[in-house]
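User: My advisor, Dr. K., asked me to get a structural model of this assembly before our group meeting. I'm new to this, so sorry if the format is off. These are the inputs:
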Amino acid sequence: MGGRAGMILVVGLSFILGYIGFNMNRYATDAVGNMASYYDASASHNLALAGANVGLSKFYEDTTWYGTLNQSFNSPSLKGSFSAKMHDLGSERAMLRSVSSYQTWYAHTLHDTVEVYFNKRRLNSFSMYAWMTDFEGNVFWITGDTVWGRVHSNGNLHVNGKPVFMDKATTSKHFDPKPGVGANKAIFKKGYETGVAKIDFPTDISEIVTASTSGGRNYAGAIWVTLSPGTSATGDGKVYVRATQFGPIIDSISLSDPTFNGVILGTGRVNVQGAMDGRLTIASLSDVYVQDDIVYEQNPLEGTSDDLLGLVADKNVVVADNAANNSNCVIHAAIFARDVAFSAENYASRGLSGTLGVIGSIVQKERGAVGQFAGSTLKSGFYKRYRYDPRLEDPTFRPPYFPGFYVKTYAITNWWESYRISEVQ
Amino acid sequence: MSSLLDIIYSMLFGGTLFIIVLNANDIAAENQSTYHGDMMVQQMLTSTAQLIEGEFRNMGFGMPEKSATVRAADSSSISFLTDLGRDGGFIDTIRYSIGPVSELAATQNELDRNLYRSVNGGQRAIVGIVTTFRLQYFTMDGELLSVPVPSDRLSEVQVVEVTMEVQNSNALARSSVQVKEGERSALYSSSLWQQTRLASQNSRR
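Assistant: The format is fine. Below is the predicted structure of the whole assembly, which you can bring to the meeting.
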Protein backbone atom coordinates (compact mmCIF):
# COMPACT_ATOMS: atom_id res chain seq x y z
CA MET A 1 0.00 0.00 0.00
CA GLY A 2 2.83 2.33 1.04
CA GLY A 3 4.76 1.52 -2.14
CA ARG A 4 1.76 2.33 -4.35
CA ALA A 5 1.23 5.64 -2.57
CA GLY A 6 4.87 6.49 -3.11
CA MET A 7 4.55 5.74 -6.80
CA ILE A 8 1.48 7.96 -7.10
CA LEU A 9 3.29 10.69 -5.24
CA VAL A 10 6.35 10.55 -7.47
CA VAL A 11 4.29 10.39 -10.68
CA GLY A 12 2.08 13.25 -9.53
CA LEU A 13 5.01 15.36 -8.52
CA SER A 14 6.76 14.66 -11.81
CA PHE A 15 3.62 15.62 -13.69
CA ILE A 16 3.28 18.94 -11.83
CA LEU A 17 6.95 19.81 -12.27
CA GLY A 18 6.83 18.71 -15.90
CA TYR A 19 3.81 20.90 -16.57
CA ILE A 20 5.47 23.92 -14.97
CA GLY A 21 8.64 23.27 -16.95
CA PHE A 22 6.67 22.90 -20.19
CA ASN A 23 4.92 26.22 -19.66
CA MET A 24 8.17 27.99 -18.86
CA ASN A 25 9.75 26.55 -21.96
CA ARG A 26 6.78 27.60 -24.04
CA TYR A 27 6.98 31.22 -22.91
CA ALA A 28 10.72 31.27 -23.37
CA THR A 29 10.35 29.82 -26.85
CA ASP A 30 7.53 32.20 -27.75
CA ALA A 31 9.57 35.21 -26.64
CA VAL A 32 12.39 34.13 -28.94
CA GLY A 33 9.86 33.09 -31.55
CA ASN A 34 8.65 36.67 -31.96
CA MET A 35 12.07 37.81 -32.95
CA ALA A 36 12.51 34.74 -35.12
CA SER A 37 9.24 35.56 -36.86
CA TYR A 38 10.44 39.10 -37.42
CA TYR A 39 13.67 37.72 -38.84
CA ASP A 40 11.70 35.41 -41.13
CA ALA A 41 9.50 38.28 -42.30
CA SER A 42 12.61 40.37 -43.02
CA ALA A 43 14.24 37.49 -44.88
CA SER A 44 11.14 36.95 -46.98
CA HIS A 45 10.95 40.65 -47.73
CA ASN A 46 14.62 40.82 -48.66
CA LEU A 47 14.15 37.86 -50.97
CA ALA A 48 11.41 39.74 -52.81
CA LEU A 49 13.68 42.79 -52.98
CA ALA A 50 16.47 40.66 -54.38
CA GLY A 51 14.06 39.41 -57.04
CA ALA A 52 13.12 42.97 -57.92
CA ASN A 53 16.77 43.96 -58.25
CA VAL A 54 17.62 40.93 -60.37
CA GLY A 55 14.57 41.62 -62.53
CA LEU A 56 15.52 45.27 -62.89
CA SER A 57 19.00 44.33 -63.94
CA LYS A 58 17.64 41.92 -66.53
CA PHE A 59 15.12 44.46 -67.83
CA TYR A 60 17.61 47.29 -68.14
CA GLU A 61 19.90 44.96 -70.07
CA ASP A 62 17.10 44.25 -72.50
CA THR A 63 14.05 46.49 -72.34
CA THR A 64 12.15 44.20 -74.69
CA TRP A 65 12.22 41.46 -72.06
CA TYR A 66 8.77 40.75 -70.68
CA GLY A 67 9.41 37.31 -69.25
CA THR A 68 9.59 35.61 -65.89
CA LEU A 69 12.68 35.01 -63.86
CA ASN A 70 12.72 32.32 -61.18
CA GLN A 71 15.47 31.59 -58.73
CA SER A 72 15.60 29.16 -55.79
CA PHE A 73 17.88 28.96 -52.79
CA ASN A 74 18.41 25.84 -50.73
CA SER A 75 21.19 26.40 -48.29
CA PRO A 76 21.04 25.73 -44.54
CA SER A 77 20.59 29.44 -43.87
CA LEU A 78 18.18 30.23 -46.67
CA LYS A 79 15.43 28.12 -48.11
CA GLY A 80 13.26 30.02 -50.49
CA SER A 81 12.74 31.40 -53.95
CA PHE A 82 11.60 34.43 -55.86
CA SER A 83 9.76 34.94 -59.10
CA ALA A 84 10.13 38.24 -60.94
CA LYS A 85 7.86 38.97 -63.87
CA MET A 86 7.60 41.95 -66.20
CA HIS A 87 4.10 43.14 -67.06
CA ASP A 88 3.30 45.43 -69.97
CA LEU A 89 0.66 47.91 -68.81
CA GLY A 90 0.07 49.55 -72.18
CA SER A 91 1.90 52.13 -74.21
CA GLU A 92 2.82 54.31 -71.24
CA ARG A 93 3.55 51.99 -68.33
CA ALA A 94 5.18 48.73 -67.36
CA MET A 95 5.53 46.91 -64.06
CA LEU A 96 7.95 44.44 -62.55
CA ARG A 97 6.47 42.25 -59.82
CA SER A 98 8.68 40.14 -57.62
CA VAL A 99 7.11 37.58 -55.28
CA SER A 100 9.12 35.66 -52.72
CA SER A 101 8.50 32.31 -51.06
CA TYR A 102 10.37 31.78 -47.83
CA GLN A 103 10.34 28.60 -45.76
CA THR A 104 10.26 29.47 -42.07
CA TRP A 105 11.72 27.41 -39.25
CA TYR A 106 8.22 26.44 -38.18
CA ALA A 107 7.42 24.98 -41.60
CA HIS A 108 5.27 27.85 -42.75
CA THR A 109 5.79 29.61 -46.08
CA LEU A 110 5.87 33.40 -46.19
CA HIS A 111 5.33 35.46 -49.32
CA ASP A 112 6.30 39.05 -49.96
CA THR A 113 5.76 41.24 -52.99
CA VAL A 114 7.65 44.14 -54.50
CA GLU A 115 6.20 46.06 -57.43
CA VAL A 116 8.21 48.47 -59.52
CA TYR A 117 6.37 50.72 -61.96
CA PHE A 118 7.97 52.25 -65.03
CA ASN A 119 7.00 55.13 -67.23
CA LYS A 120 7.85 54.20 -70.80
CA ARG A 121 7.45 57.71 -72.18
CA ARG A 122 8.34 60.83 -70.32
CA LEU A 123 7.04 64.25 -71.28
CA ASN A 124 9.77 66.82 -71.01
CA SER A 125 9.19 70.50 -71.42
CA PHE A 126 11.22 72.42 -73.97
CA SER A 127 11.65 75.04 -71.28
CA MET A 128 14.10 72.74 -69.48
CA TYR A 129 16.70 73.94 -71.99
CA ALA A 130 18.25 77.34 -71.50
CA TRP A 131 19.05 77.34 -75.20
CA MET A 132 17.84 75.00 -77.87
CA THR A 133 17.74 75.08 -81.65
CA ASP A 134 16.81 72.70 -84.38
CA PHE A 135 19.31 74.38 -86.65
CA GLU A 136 22.11 76.74 -85.56
CA GLY A 137 22.74 78.17 -89.01
CA ASN A 138 26.13 79.71 -89.44
CA VAL A 139 26.16 81.50 -86.09
CA PHE A 140 29.09 80.92 -83.76
CA TRP A 141 29.45 80.72 -80.02
CA ILE A 142 32.30 83.09 -79.26
CA THR A 143 34.48 84.34 -76.41
CA GLY A 144 32.36 86.25 -73.92
CA ASP A 145 29.27 84.08 -74.41
CA THR A 146 28.23 82.42 -71.17
CA VAL A 147 25.22 80.14 -70.93
CA TRP A 148 23.64 79.05 -67.68
CA GLY A 149 21.42 76.01 -68.02
CA ARG A 150 21.34 73.17 -70.51
CA VAL A 151 22.10 73.72 -74.18
CA HIS A 152 21.02 71.48 -77.04
CA SER A 153 20.92 71.65 -80.80
CA ASN A 154 19.69 69.12 -83.32
CA GLY A 155 22.30 70.57 -85.65
CA ASN A 156 25.99 71.41 -85.44
CA LEU A 157 27.14 73.78 -82.70
CA HIS A 158 29.73 76.19 -84.10
CA VAL A 159 32.35 77.52 -81.73
CA ASN A 160 34.99 80.14 -82.33
CA GLY A 161 36.79 81.13 -79.16
CA LYS A 162 36.18 80.44 -75.51
CA PRO A 163 32.49 80.49 -74.66
CA VAL A 164 31.50 79.04 -71.28
CA PHE A 165 28.73 76.47 -70.95
CA MET A 166 27.82 76.32 -67.28
CA ASP A 167 25.62 73.24 -67.68
CA LYS A 168 25.75 70.26 -70.01
CA ALA A 169 25.79 70.99 -73.74
CA THR A 170 24.49 68.38 -76.17
CA THR A 171 24.13 68.14 -79.93
CA SER A 172 22.55 65.56 -82.16
CA LYS A 173 25.37 66.18 -84.62
CA HIS A 174 28.78 67.62 -83.76
CA PHE A 175 30.72 70.55 -82.43
CA ASP A 176 32.36 72.46 -85.21
CA PRO A 177 35.28 72.21 -84.80
CA LYS A 178 35.61 69.48 -82.20
CA PRO A 179 36.13 70.66 -78.62
CA GLY A 180 39.76 71.44 -77.96
CA VAL A 181 40.56 71.43 -81.64
CA GLY A 182 41.38 74.55 -83.64
CA ALA A 183 39.30 77.56 -82.66
CA ASN A 184 37.03 75.60 -80.33
CA LYS A 185 38.33 76.45 -76.88
CA ALA A 186 34.94 76.23 -75.25
CA ILE A 187 34.73 75.55 -71.52
CA PHE A 188 32.16 72.94 -70.57
CA LYS A 189 31.56 73.11 -66.83
CA LYS A 190 29.34 70.02 -66.80
CA GLY A 191 30.56 68.30 -69.91
CA TYR A 192 29.18 67.83 -73.38
CA GLU A 193 27.79 65.03 -75.51
CA THR A 194 27.55 64.67 -79.26
CA GLY A 195 25.34 62.43 -81.36
CA VAL A 196 22.49 62.36 -78.86
CA ALA A 197 18.99 61.52 -80.03
CA LYS A 198 17.33 64.28 -82.00
CA ILE A 199 14.57 66.12 -80.19
CA ASP A 200 11.80 66.69 -82.69
CA PHE A 201 10.01 70.00 -82.69
CA PRO A 202 6.23 69.69 -82.70
CA THR A 203 4.55 70.06 -86.06
CA ASP A 204 2.06 72.57 -84.65
CA ILE A 205 0.94 74.15 -81.40
CA SER A 206 -2.45 72.47 -81.44
CA GLU A 207 -2.31 71.59 -77.75
CA ILE A 208 -2.17 75.28 -76.88
CA VAL A 209 -4.89 76.07 -79.40
CA THR A 210 -7.14 73.48 -77.77
CA ALA A 211 -6.34 74.85 -74.31
CA SER A 212 -7.13 78.38 -75.47
CA THR A 213 -10.63 77.32 -76.47
CA SER A 214 -11.31 75.25 -73.38
CA GLY A 215 -10.60 77.26 -70.28
CA GLY A 216 -8.28 79.81 -71.90
CA ARG A 217 -8.78 82.76 -74.27
CA ASN A 218 -8.75 82.61 -78.05
CA TYR A 219 -8.85 85.78 -80.14
CA ALA A 220 -9.16 86.04 -83.91
CA GLY A 221 -6.58 88.28 -85.53
CA ALA A 222 -3.93 90.45 -83.92
CA ILE A 223 -4.09 91.46 -80.28
CA TRP A 224 -2.18 93.73 -77.92
CA VAL A 225 -1.61 92.26 -74.48
CA THR A 226 -0.63 94.37 -71.48
CA LEU A 227 0.41 92.60 -68.31
CA SER A 228 -0.30 94.21 -64.97
CA PRO A 229 1.14 92.93 -61.67
CA GLY A 230 -1.82 94.13 -59.57
CA THR A 231 -0.98 94.86 -55.94
CA SER A 232 2.26 93.90 -54.23
CA ALA A 233 0.59 90.67 -53.10
CA THR A 234 1.45 87.59 -55.13
CA GLY A 235 -0.90 85.94 -57.58
CA ASP A 236 -3.17 88.88 -58.29
CA GLY A 237 -1.87 89.83 -61.73
CA LYS A 238 -4.16 90.91 -64.55
CA VAL A 239 -4.05 90.83 -68.30
CA TYR A 240 -5.65 93.48 -70.48
CA VAL A 241 -6.31 92.69 -74.12
CA ARG A 242 -6.83 95.21 -76.88
CA ALA A 243 -7.48 94.77 -80.59
CA THR A 244 -5.17 97.66 -81.45
CA GLN A 245 -2.28 99.31 -79.65
CA PHE A 246 -4.25 102.26 -78.26
CA GLY A 247 -7.75 100.88 -78.66
CA PRO A 248 -10.21 100.08 -75.88
CA ILE A 249 -9.72 97.05 -73.66
CA ILE A 250 -11.70 94.20 -75.15
CA ASP A 251 -10.96 91.70 -72.39
CA SER A 252 -9.61 91.69 -68.87
CA ILE A 253 -8.41 88.49 -67.24
CA SER A 254 -7.49 87.87 -63.64
CA LEU A 255 -4.65 85.35 -63.34
CA SER A 256 -6.01 84.22 -59.99
CA ASP A 257 -9.30 83.19 -61.61
CA PRO A 258 -9.50 79.41 -61.01
CA THR A 259 -11.61 78.90 -64.13
CA PHE A 260 -8.86 80.38 -66.34
CA ASN A 261 -6.34 77.74 -67.44
CA GLY A 262 -3.53 80.22 -68.10
CA VAL A 263 -3.51 80.27 -71.92
CA ILE A 264 -4.08 83.31 -74.16
CA LEU A 265 -3.83 82.82 -77.92
CA GLY A 266 -4.24 85.11 -80.87
CA THR A 267 -4.53 83.81 -84.40
CA GLY A 268 -2.67 86.88 -85.71
CA ARG A 269 0.30 88.79 -84.39
CA VAL A 270 0.33 89.00 -80.60
CA ASN A 271 2.01 92.05 -79.10
CA VAL A 272 3.08 91.84 -75.46
CA GLN A 273 4.48 94.11 -72.76
CA GLY A 274 4.18 94.75 -69.04
CA ALA A 275 4.85 93.25 -65.63
CA MET A 276 3.18 90.06 -64.63
CA ASP A 277 2.19 88.29 -61.44
CA GLY A 278 1.03 84.71 -61.88
CA ARG A 279 1.40 81.97 -64.46
CA LEU A 280 0.55 82.47 -68.08
CA THR A 281 1.30 81.35 -71.61
CA ILE A 282 0.80 83.86 -74.41
CA ALA A 283 0.73 82.27 -77.84
CA SER A 284 0.29 83.24 -81.46
CA LEU A 285 -0.46 81.24 -84.56
CA SER A 286 1.91 83.61 -86.35
CA ASP A 287 4.35 85.84 -84.41
CA VAL A 288 4.76 87.17 -80.90
CA TYR A 289 6.15 90.71 -80.75
CA VAL A 290 7.76 92.03 -77.61
CA GLN A 291 6.78 95.72 -77.60
CA ASP A 292 8.47 96.70 -74.34
CA ASP A 293 9.97 95.10 -71.24
CA ILE A 294 8.19 92.00 -69.96
CA VAL A 295 9.14 91.36 -66.35
CA TYR A 296 7.99 89.24 -63.43
CA GLU A 297 6.74 90.97 -60.31
CA GLN A 298 9.28 88.83 -58.43
CA ASN A 299 12.56 88.19 -60.22
CA PRO A 300 13.43 84.49 -59.74
CA LEU A 301 17.15 85.31 -59.65
CA GLU A 302 16.67 87.71 -56.76
CA GLY A 303 14.52 85.59 -54.46
CA THR A 304 11.51 83.36 -54.38
CA SER A 305 9.16 83.81 -57.30
CA ASP A 306 6.02 82.03 -58.41
CA ASP A 307 5.64 84.08 -61.58
CA LEU A 308 6.05 82.23 -64.85
CA LEU A 309 5.42 83.28 -68.43
CA GLY A 310 5.64 81.40 -71.70
CA LEU A 311 5.85 83.21 -75.03
CA VAL A 312 4.96 80.72 -77.75
CA ALA A 313 4.87 81.55 -81.44
CA ASP A 314 4.09 79.24 -84.29
CA LYS A 315 6.55 81.32 -86.33
CA ASN A 316 8.70 84.00 -84.67
CA VAL A 317 9.22 85.67 -81.35
CA VAL A 318 10.47 89.15 -82.21
CA VAL A 319 11.81 92.07 -80.19
CA ALA A 320 10.05 94.96 -81.91
CA ASP A 321 12.02 97.86 -83.34
CA ASN A 322 10.47 100.77 -81.48
CA ALA A 323 11.44 103.60 -79.14
CA ALA A 324 10.80 101.55 -76.00
CA ASN A 325 13.13 98.79 -77.11
CA ASN A 326 15.90 100.93 -78.53
CA SER A 327 17.58 101.44 -75.18
CA ASN A 328 17.72 97.97 -73.67
CA CYS A 329 14.98 95.39 -73.42
CA VAL A 330 14.28 92.92 -70.65
CA ILE A 331 12.25 89.74 -71.11
CA HIS A 332 11.38 87.38 -68.27
CA ALA A 333 9.88 84.38 -70.03
CA ALA A 334 10.35 80.94 -71.51
CA ILE A 335 10.43 81.63 -75.25
CA PHE A 336 9.42 79.12 -77.91
CA ALA A 337 9.51 79.88 -81.64
CA ARG A 338 8.25 76.67 -83.22
CA ASP A 339 8.92 77.16 -86.88
CA VAL A 340 11.33 80.08 -87.20
CA ALA A 341 13.35 82.05 -84.62
CA PHE A 342 13.74 84.41 -81.72
CA SER A 343 15.21 87.59 -83.14
CA ALA A 344 15.27 91.37 -83.08
CA GLU A 345 13.31 93.25 -85.70
CA ASN A 346 15.62 95.04 -88.16
CA TYR A 347 18.63 93.81 -86.22
CA ALA A 348 20.99 94.92 -88.96
CA SER A 349 19.51 98.39 -89.44
CA ARG A 350 17.85 99.45 -86.16
CA GLY A 351 20.92 101.08 -84.70
CA LEU A 352 22.51 100.37 -81.35
CA SER A 353 19.78 99.21 -79.01
CA GLY A 354 21.64 98.42 -75.82
CA THR A 355 21.37 95.09 -74.06
CA LEU A 356 18.76 92.42 -74.53
CA GLY A 357 18.35 90.70 -71.17
CA VAL A 358 16.45 87.47 -71.03
CA ILE A 359 15.72 85.55 -67.85
CA GLY A 360 14.12 82.27 -68.82
CA SER A 361 14.85 79.98 -71.74
CA ILE A 362 15.06 80.31 -75.51
CA VAL A 363 13.97 77.52 -77.83
CA GLN A 364 13.80 78.16 -81.55
CA LYS A 365 13.80 76.27 -84.81
CA GLU A 366 16.62 78.33 -86.28
CA ARG A 367 19.03 80.51 -84.44
CA GLY A 368 17.87 84.09 -84.95
CA ALA A 369 19.97 87.24 -84.80
CA VAL A 370 19.50 90.15 -82.43
CA GLY A 371 22.45 92.23 -83.48
CA GLN A 372 25.22 92.64 -85.96
CA PHE A 373 28.86 92.60 -85.00
CA ALA A 374 32.07 93.59 -86.66
CA GLY A 375 34.59 91.51 -84.78
CA SER A 376 33.54 91.95 -81.17
CA THR A 377 32.07 95.43 -81.76
CA LEU A 378 28.31 95.80 -81.97
CA LYS A 379 27.25 97.66 -85.05
CA SER A 380 23.50 97.45 -84.61
CA GLY A 381 20.92 95.68 -82.50
CA PHE A 382 21.54 94.27 -79.06
CA TYR A 383 24.25 92.95 -76.85
CA LYS A 384 23.00 89.72 -75.29
CA ARG A 385 22.65 88.98 -71.60
CA TYR A 386 20.76 85.72 -71.31
CA ARG A 387 20.27 84.12 -67.93
CA TYR A 388 18.53 80.82 -67.38
CA ASP A 389 15.64 80.63 -64.94
CA PRO A 390 16.80 77.68 -62.81
CA ARG A 391 13.25 76.82 -61.81
CA LEU A 392 12.79 75.52 -65.34
CA GLU A 393 15.32 72.72 -64.76
CA ASP A 394 12.40 70.71 -63.47
CA PRO A 395 10.53 69.68 -66.62
CA THR A 396 7.29 69.52 -64.65
CA PHE A 397 7.66 73.21 -63.83
CA ARG A 398 6.63 74.96 -66.99
CA PRO A 399 4.25 77.66 -68.16
CA PRO A 400 0.71 76.38 -68.76
CA TYR A 401 0.60 74.03 -71.77
CA PHE A 402 4.14 75.02 -72.78
CA PRO A 403 5.26 72.71 -75.62
CA GLY A 404 6.92 69.49 -74.61
CA PHE A 405 8.45 66.42 -76.16
CA TYR A 406 8.37 62.76 -75.32
CA VAL A 407 11.52 60.84 -74.61
CA LYS A 408 11.71 57.08 -74.63
CA THR A 409 12.69 56.03 -71.19
CA TYR A 410 12.11 53.41 -68.57
CA ALA A 411 12.25 55.64 -65.57
CA ILE A 412 11.00 54.15 -62.32
CA THR A 413 7.95 56.11 -61.30
CA ASN A 414 6.79 54.15 -58.29
CA TRP A 415 7.99 51.43 -55.98
CA TRP A 416 5.75 49.47 -53.64
CA GLU A 417 6.64 46.83 -51.06
CA SER A 418 4.21 44.63 -49.20
CA TYR A 419 4.14 44.63 -45.44
CA ARG A 420 2.32 42.98 -42.57
CA ILE A 421 -0.17 44.78 -40.38
CA SER A 422 -2.47 41.98 -39.28
CA GLU A 423 -1.09 41.73 -35.79
CA VAL A 424 -1.61 45.40 -35.12
CA GLN A 425 -5.09 46.11 -36.34
CA MET B 1 5.77 2.37 17.97
CA SER B 2 6.97 1.66 14.42
CA SER B 3 3.67 2.95 13.06
CA LEU B 4 4.15 6.16 14.92
CA LEU B 5 7.67 6.52 13.52
CA ASP B 6 6.29 5.82 10.01
CA ILE B 7 3.75 8.58 10.43
CA ILE B 8 6.42 11.04 11.67
CA TYR B 9 8.78 10.14 8.82
CA SER B 10 5.92 10.45 6.34
CA MET B 11 5.01 13.87 7.65
CA LEU B 12 8.61 15.03 7.46
CA PHE B 13 9.01 13.66 3.95
CA GLY B 14 5.65 15.01 2.83
CA GLY B 15 6.32 18.39 4.38
CA THR B 16 9.68 18.63 2.68
CA LEU B 17 8.13 17.71 -0.62
CA PHE B 18 5.37 20.22 -0.08
CA ILE B 19 7.88 23.00 0.63
CA ILE B 20 9.88 22.01 -2.48
CA VAL B 21 6.73 22.13 -4.60
CA LEU B 22 5.72 25.50 -3.19
CA ASN B 23 9.19 26.87 -3.81
CA ALA B 24 9.24 25.46 -7.32
CA ASN B 25 5.85 26.99 -7.92
CA ASP B 26 7.09 30.41 -6.80
CA ILE B 27 10.12 30.19 -9.07
CA ALA B 28 8.01 28.96 -11.95
CA ALA B 29 5.49 31.75 -11.47
CA GLU B 30 8.23 34.37 -11.40
CA ASN B 31 9.93 32.96 -14.49
CA GLN B 32 6.62 32.61 -16.21
CA SER B 33 5.84 36.24 -15.48
CA THR B 34 9.24 37.33 -16.81
CA TYR B 35 8.99 35.26 -19.97
CA HIS B 36 5.41 36.31 -20.53
CA GLY B 37 6.44 39.94 -20.14
CA ASP B 38 9.29 39.47 -22.60
CA MET B 39 6.97 37.82 -25.04
CA MET B 40 4.41 40.61 -24.85
CA VAL B 41 7.03 43.29 -25.21
CA GLN B 42 8.59 41.64 -28.22
CA GLN B 43 5.22 40.97 -29.78
CA MET B 44 4.30 44.64 -29.44
CA LEU B 45 7.66 45.74 -30.79
CA THR B 46 7.76 43.47 -33.83
CA SER B 47 4.20 44.21 -34.89
CA THR B 48 4.71 47.97 -34.57
CA ALA B 49 8.10 47.75 -36.26
CA GLN B 50 6.65 45.85 -39.20
CA LEU B 51 3.94 48.45 -39.68
CA ILE B 52 6.36 51.37 -39.49
CA GLU B 53 8.91 49.69 -41.74
CA GLY B 54 6.26 48.87 -44.32
CA GLU B 55 4.67 52.28 -44.44
CA PHE B 56 7.93 54.20 -44.39
CA ARG B 57 9.25 52.09 -47.28
CA ASN B 58 6.21 53.04 -49.34
CA MET B 59 6.48 56.71 -48.52
CA GLY B 60 5.80 58.75 -51.65
CA PHE B 61 4.14 55.92 -53.58
CA GLY B 62 1.85 57.35 -56.24
CA MET B 63 3.34 60.83 -55.96
CA PRO B 64 4.68 62.70 -58.98
CA GLU B 65 8.43 62.69 -59.32
CA LYS B 66 10.43 65.30 -57.49
CA SER B 67 7.52 66.28 -55.29
CA ALA B 68 8.16 66.44 -51.58
CA THR B 69 6.70 63.42 -49.84
CA VAL B 70 7.52 64.36 -46.27
CA ARG B 71 5.21 67.11 -45.08
CA ALA B 72 6.51 67.53 -41.54
CA ALA B 73 9.41 65.91 -39.73
CA ASP B 74 10.23 66.23 -36.07
CA SER B 75 12.16 64.14 -33.59
CA SER B 76 9.12 62.15 -32.53
CA SER B 77 6.56 62.74 -35.24
CA ILE B 78 6.42 62.56 -38.99
CA SER B 79 3.83 63.28 -41.61
CA PHE B 80 4.19 61.98 -45.15
CA LEU B 81 2.26 61.27 -48.33
CA THR B 82 1.49 57.96 -49.99
CA ASP B 83 -1.25 56.33 -52.01
CA LEU B 84 -2.55 53.78 -49.54
CA GLY B 85 -5.20 52.48 -51.92
CA ARG B 86 -2.68 51.96 -54.75
CA ASP B 87 -5.36 52.97 -57.20
CA GLY B 88 -3.59 55.97 -58.68
CA GLY B 89 -6.15 58.22 -57.10
CA PHE B 90 -6.26 60.05 -53.82
CA ILE B 91 -2.93 60.65 -52.09
CA ASP B 92 -3.16 59.98 -48.37
CA THR B 93 -1.39 61.82 -45.59
CA ILE B 94 -0.11 59.56 -42.84
CA ARG B 95 1.06 60.90 -39.54
CA TYR B 96 2.90 59.09 -36.76
CA SER B 97 3.18 60.77 -33.39
CA ILE B 98 3.47 59.94 -29.72
CA GLY B 99 1.21 61.01 -26.90
CA PRO B 100 2.25 62.31 -23.47
CA VAL B 101 3.24 59.90 -20.71
CA SER B 102 0.31 61.20 -18.66
CA GLU B 103 -2.06 59.31 -20.94
CA LEU B 104 -0.75 56.07 -19.49
CA ALA B 105 -0.30 57.28 -15.94
CA ALA B 106 -2.37 54.36 -14.73
CA THR B 107 0.32 51.86 -15.71
CA GLN B 108 3.22 51.03 -13.44
CA ASN B 109 5.74 52.11 -16.06
CA GLU B 110 6.17 55.87 -15.86
CA LEU B 111 7.83 56.08 -19.28
CA ASP B 112 5.34 54.39 -21.57
CA ARG B 113 3.18 56.36 -23.97
CA ASN B 114 0.92 55.73 -26.93
CA LEU B 115 2.21 55.68 -30.47
CA TYR B 116 -0.46 57.09 -32.75
CA ARG B 117 -1.11 56.80 -36.46
CA SER B 118 -3.64 58.93 -38.28
CA VAL B 119 -4.66 59.03 -41.92
CA ASN B 120 -5.73 62.22 -43.70
CA GLY B 121 -6.11 64.10 -40.44
CA GLY B 122 -8.67 61.62 -39.16
CA GLN B 123 -8.95 60.11 -35.72
CA ARG B 124 -5.69 58.90 -34.24
CA ALA B 125 -5.37 55.17 -33.74
CA ILE B 126 -3.03 53.63 -31.21
CA VAL B 127 -0.61 51.38 -33.05
CA GLY B 128 1.68 50.62 -30.15
CA ILE B 129 2.84 51.52 -26.69
CA VAL B 130 6.41 52.69 -26.62
CA THR B 131 8.87 54.17 -24.19
CA THR B 132 11.11 55.59 -26.90
CA PHE B 133 10.19 56.71 -30.41
CA ARG B 134 12.94 58.77 -31.98
CA LEU B 135 13.29 59.85 -35.60
CA GLN B 136 16.31 61.25 -37.39
CA TYR B 137 16.45 62.42 -40.98
CA PHE B 138 19.27 62.30 -43.50
CA THR B 139 19.83 63.70 -46.97
CA MET B 140 21.06 61.63 -49.90
CA ASP B 141 24.61 62.67 -48.98
CA GLY B 142 24.16 61.41 -45.45
CA GLU B 143 23.82 64.86 -43.90
CA LEU B 144 21.89 64.75 -40.65
CA LEU B 145 19.11 67.31 -40.80
CA SER B 146 18.21 69.32 -37.73
CA VAL B 147 14.77 68.77 -36.26
CA PRO B 148 12.16 69.94 -36.84
CA VAL B 149 13.27 69.81 -40.45
CA PRO B 150 12.73 73.28 -41.99
CA SER B 151 10.00 73.28 -44.61
CA ASP B 152 12.41 74.27 -47.39
CA ARG B 153 14.54 71.18 -46.66
CA LEU B 154 11.77 68.60 -46.34
CA SER B 155 12.27 67.57 -49.96
CA GLU B 156 15.84 66.61 -49.09
CA VAL B 157 14.75 63.92 -46.63
CA GLN B 158 15.85 60.65 -48.21
CA VAL B 159 16.58 58.42 -45.26
CA VAL B 160 14.83 58.08 -41.93
CA GLU B 161 16.37 56.48 -38.89
CA VAL B 162 13.83 55.06 -36.48
CA THR B 163 14.63 54.06 -32.91
CA MET B 164 11.90 52.46 -30.89
CA GLU B 165 11.88 50.88 -27.46
CA VAL B 166 9.04 49.01 -25.89
CA GLN B 167 8.93 48.24 -22.18
CA ASN B 168 6.52 46.16 -20.22
CA SER B 169 3.84 48.22 -18.53
CA ASN B 170 4.05 45.98 -15.51
CA ALA B 171 7.05 46.05 -13.24
CA LEU B 172 9.09 43.29 -11.73
CA ALA B 173 9.51 44.44 -8.18
CA ARG B 174 12.95 44.57 -6.59
CA SER B 175 13.92 45.05 -3.00
CA SER B 176 15.59 48.36 -2.17
CA VAL B 177 18.87 46.47 -1.66
CA GLN B 178 18.87 45.41 -5.29
CA VAL B 179 18.37 48.92 -6.64
CA LYS B 180 21.60 50.69 -7.47
CA GLU B 181 22.01 54.43 -7.45
CA GLY B 182 20.33 56.10 -10.42
CA GLU B 183 18.28 53.04 -11.24
CA ARG B 184 14.53 52.84 -11.28
CA SER B 185 13.10 51.00 -8.31
CA ALA B 186 11.39 48.43 -10.49
CA LEU B 187 12.54 46.34 -13.44
CA TYR B 188 10.73 46.34 -16.76
CA SER B 189 11.42 43.89 -19.51
CA SER B 190 12.26 45.88 -22.62
CA SER B 191 13.11 45.47 -26.27
CA LEU B 192 14.83 47.94 -28.58
CA TRP B 193 14.51 48.18 -32.36
CA GLN B 194 16.44 50.49 -34.60
CA GLN B 195 16.29 50.84 -38.35
CA THR B 196 19.24 52.98 -39.22
CA ARG B 197 18.71 53.38 -42.94
CA LEU B 198 15.03 53.29 -43.75
CA ALA B 199 14.74 54.70 -47.24
CA SER B 200 11.82 54.77 -49.60
CA GLN B 201 12.77 54.04 -53.19
CA ASN B 202 10.10 56.55 -54.19
CA SER B 203 12.11 59.43 -52.78
CA ARG B 204 15.15 58.48 -54.87
CA ARG B 205 13.48 58.90 -58.25
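One thing worth pointing out at the meeting: Residues 2-123+410-417 of chain A form one domain.

User: Perfect, thanks a lot.
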